[in-house]
């Protein structure tokens, strides 16, 4: 019986354990988690979402404080057009986050950065270019472009000296999205080094609508794989979404995928950035506790736990400090919803906003509990402790379980002392 370790992911000349830990912003896929994946011979992702805040936490910088001070005058103004990111600060924060992570890298694996196009930062092109180029400057092994179509992203970094050397990949959920990307980028003569095919069971934002349950990852992979073969395009496919055991992974590796991207099982590891109390919420969840909703201002459906504190919260938009979802004209769907509720309840001390959430503030505070569909199975991957809580795992344990297990087995951790 095959196990994941019988396969290798070939990216150019490099051969890796075909396990990628997916990017999870904001700092849920921490540098520590990504470094473990690299040390073990696979690929780990950090995320550049809200990188100023991540830098402030990791390196004691004060990017967010400075921005808040600069735009303090605007806090009670519902118009956010003037809120802009200082591009030098953005580059500096990205270089710190990426550079310090790369300095700490050990082992034969790689570290990529997950870059979400939907973080439009009130100047989509300018800020994205800075993010991509600063990550390349700081020596990142690769960039995974996610959440958005990214039709122009390769072009934005085409002038960078590392454009053809670093591994560049995209996340798609359909053959059509991949075809569109390849067509739009044909003139650059630079194919993606890998394509993550994300199915409907993934965590975070989804590339599907409310009919997500009608789609199936293996069917999408097969369709893309056959098309690539017909076009004589040799691009490794990485299967993502709902791959819970080593055997699940082997099944994809035997049917068109060259690697897997996994995330949910690592949300309950000690290296994951979620607070321990939130990890316990993930362990406790049952299938009925998970939903796909539309509260993300990005316009993409998002999967999360139903008891997520962000749902219904009516906090004042935090754009003077954050503003990562401002669309380029100072708009964010949460601001519109918030302003509507304020106008409807002029005397209320506290308002509730049900249809959208202030994603920046809530992700930053780990109050938006986005998760994969298989989260309800996490309790079966560990031991219950005497106090009723669940034992937190190590990233190494989960990685090795994917790498070496057979027969849909899940290895439990050694009993905590
Ligand atoms: C908590 C959480 C946060 C996530 N955040 C992001 C993100 O910021 N960007 C992204 O491209 N994908 C994100 N994802 C998707 C993962 O990178 C990955 O592709 C997917 O969840 C894999 O499926 P699995 O969770 O069933 O293993 C997130 C997933 C989880 C569970």
From TrEMBL:
Protein's UniProt keywords contain Oxidoreductase: yes
Pfam name, any one: NMO
Keywords assigned by UniProt, alphabetized: Flavoprotein, FMN, Monooxygenase, Oxidoreductase
GO molecular function terms attached to this record: nitronate monooxygenase activity; oxidoreductase activity, acting on the CH-CH group of donors
BP GO annotations: 'de novo' pyrimidine nucleobase biosynthetic process
Keyword Oxidoreductase: yes
CDD domains given in the database record: NPD_like
Signal sequence region: none
Domain of life where this protein originates: Bacteria
PANTHER family, A to Z: 2-NITROPROPANE DIOXYGENASE
Name of the protein: Nitronate monooxygenase
């Amino acid at each position: 019986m095959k196990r994941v370790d019988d396969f290798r992911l070939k990216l150019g000349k490099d051969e890796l354990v075909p396990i990628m830990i997916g990017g999870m912003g904001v700092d849920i896929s921490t540098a520590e988690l990504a470094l473990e994946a690299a040390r073990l011979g696979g690929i780990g992702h950090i995320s550049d979402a809200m990188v100023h805040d991540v830098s402030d936490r990791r390196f004691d910088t004060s990017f967010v404080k400075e921005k808040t001070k600069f735009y303090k005058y605007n806090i009670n103004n519902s118009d956010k057009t003037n809120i802009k990111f200082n591009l030098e600060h953005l580059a500096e924060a990205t270089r710190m986050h990426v550079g310090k992570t790369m300095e700490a890298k050990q082992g034969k694996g790689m570290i990529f950065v997950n870059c979400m196009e939907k973080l439009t930062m009130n100047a989509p092109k300018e800020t994205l270019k800075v993010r991509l180029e600063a990550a390349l400057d700081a020596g990142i092994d690769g960039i995974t472009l996610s959440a958005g179509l990214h039709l122009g992203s390769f072009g934005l970094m085409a002038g960078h000296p590392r454009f053809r050397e670093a591994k560049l990949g995209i996340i798609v959920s359909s053959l059509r999205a991949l075809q569109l990307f390849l067509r739009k980028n044909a003139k650059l003569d630079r194919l993606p080094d890998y394509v993550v095919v994300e199915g409907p069971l993934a965590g975070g934002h989804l590339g599907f609508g409310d009919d997500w349950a009608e789609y199936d990852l293996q069917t999408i992979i097969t369709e893309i794989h056959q098309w690539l073969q017909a076009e004589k395009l040799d691009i490794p496919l990485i299967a993502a979404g709902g791959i819970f055991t080593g055997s699940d992974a082997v099944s994809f590796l035997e049917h068109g995928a060259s690697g897997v991207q996994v995330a949910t099982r690592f949300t309950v590891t000690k290296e994951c950035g979620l607070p321990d109390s939130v990890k316990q919420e993930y362990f406790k969840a049952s299938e009925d506790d998970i939903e796909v909703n539309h509260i993300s201002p990005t316009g993409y459906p998002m999967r999360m736990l139903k008891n997520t504190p962000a749902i219904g919260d009516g906090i004042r938009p935090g754009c003077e400090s954050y503003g990562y979802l401002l669309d380029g004209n100072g708009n964010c769907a949460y601001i519109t919803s918030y302003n509507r509720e304020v106008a409807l309840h002029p005397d209320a001390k506290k308002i509730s906003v049900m249809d959208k959430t202030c994603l920046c503030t809530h992700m930053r505070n780990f109050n938006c509990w986005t998760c994969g569909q298989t989260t309800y199975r996490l309790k079966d991957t560990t031991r219950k402790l005497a106090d009723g809580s669940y034992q937190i795992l190590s990233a190494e344990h989960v990685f090795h379980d994917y790498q070496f297990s057979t027969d849909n087995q899940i290895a439990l951790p050694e009993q905590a002392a």
